[in-house]
């Protein structure tokens, strides 16, 4: 099945892909482990739509292709299973068409990268809440970033607000450690699943660095000790070091 190019123009605002998430079974992004590809879509169309999920490996070959025709108005979430068979980087793309017979794109495609490790990898995901790998899409400030366009508020750290001393330095530090376009692993805080002002509260790993701890270590952030009683991560060494007891 041919898939429209990501850059294809779409003259339609009836359908929007709001969110793309990949959640691994057991919290580990490993080859051979089933993943749940979760897509959140808003539609105001009266007719049915066809959403398509395509996964390509690092060589450009299609590893998975799934689709479903649905009819709804408002916002809905959908889920498709996928199991990567080898380690490496994958690109996951979501498209929305008006149908299979005469396909016409109804929304701009959504895409993100996912790094899958070999079976012997050390798990960084803890607890039972959402843990996913995605692409950094925006740096809001020192303690808030977007991954796959999902707003992430870093757990147990606080950086200066706009207009306060140190704001630019903290924001620049986060942008350097987790640059836009890079891959980040997000582990939601089990103790704060209600979020913070519409943002997911989490630990964020970029490469081999954990952003929360690095901000504290560098002096660009202070610990949010008022959340120590709630946070899943309060007992971890980095949180203990900076004030959680």
Percent range for β-strand residues:
35-45%
Count of separate DSSP helical elements = 3
Identify the strand order in the major beta sheet: 8-9-10-13-12
CATH class (first level) name of the largest domain: Mainly Beta
Overall mean pLDDT? 87
Number of strands: 15
**Main β-sheet, in a few words?**
5 strands, mixed, barrel
Form type: globular
Which blocks of ≥5 consecutive residues have pLDDT under 50?
A: 1-11
Structural commentary:
The protein has 245 residues and is mainly beta. It has 2 domains: 15-116, Immunoglobulin-like; 131-241, OB fold (Dihydrolipoamide Acetyltransferase, E2P) (Beta Barrel). It is 10% helix and 41% strand. It is built from 3 helices and 15 strands. The chain has helices at residues 167-177, 211-218, 237-241; strands at residues 15-24, 35-43, 49-56, 62-70, 74-82, 88-97, 110-116, 131-141, 144-147, 150-154, 157-158, 183-188, 200-206, 209-210, 222-223. A 5-stranded mixed barrel has the order 8-9-10-13-12. Strand 13 and strand 14 form a beta hairpin. It is globular. Mean pLDDT is 87; it is low at 1-11. Residues 130-221 form the TNase-like domain. It comes from Nitrososphaera viennensis. This is Thermonuclease family protein.
How are the elements arranged and paired?
Blueprint: E1 15-24, E2 35-43, E3 49-56, E4 62-70, E5 74-82, E6 88-97, E7 110-116, E8 131-141, E9 144-147, E10 150-154, E11 157-158, H1 167-177, E12 183-188, E13 200-206, E14 209-210, H2 211-218, E15 222-223, H3 237-241
Parallel strand pairs: 10-13
Antiparallel strand pairs: 1-2, 2-5, 3-4, 3-6, 6-7, 8-9, 8-12, 9-10, 11-15, 12-13, 13-14
């Amino acid at each position: 099945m041919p898939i429209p190019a990501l850059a294809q123009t779409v003259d339609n605002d009836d359908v929007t892909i709001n969110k793309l998430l990949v959640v691994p079974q057991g919290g580990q992004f490993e080859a051979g482990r089933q993943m749940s590809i979760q897509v959140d879509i808003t539609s105001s169309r009266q007719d049915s739509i066809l959403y398509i999920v395509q996964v390509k490996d690092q060589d450009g070959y299609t590893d998975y292709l799934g689709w479903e025709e649905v009819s709804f108005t408002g916002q809905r979430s959908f889920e498709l299973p996928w199991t990567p068979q080898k380690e490496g980087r994958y690109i996951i793309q979501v498209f929305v068409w008006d149908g299979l017979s005469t396909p016409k794109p109804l929304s701009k495609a959504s895409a993100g990268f996912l790094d899958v490790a070999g079976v012997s990898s050390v798990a960084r995901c803890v607890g039972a809440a959402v843990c996913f790998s995605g692409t950094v899409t925006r740096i809001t400030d020192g303690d808030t970033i977007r991954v796959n366009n999902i707003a992430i508020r870093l757990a147990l750290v606080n950086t200066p607000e706009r207009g306060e001393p140190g704001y630019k330095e903290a924001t620049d530090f986060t942008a350097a450690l987790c640059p836009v376009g890079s891959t980040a692993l997000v582990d939601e805080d089990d103790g704060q699943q209600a979020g913070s002002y519409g943002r997911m509260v989490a630990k964020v790993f970029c490469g081999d660095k954990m952003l929360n701890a690095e901000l504290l270590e560098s002096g660009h952030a202070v610990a949010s000790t008022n959340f120590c009683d709630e946070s899943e991560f309060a007992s971890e060494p980095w949180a203990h070091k900076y004030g959680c007891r």
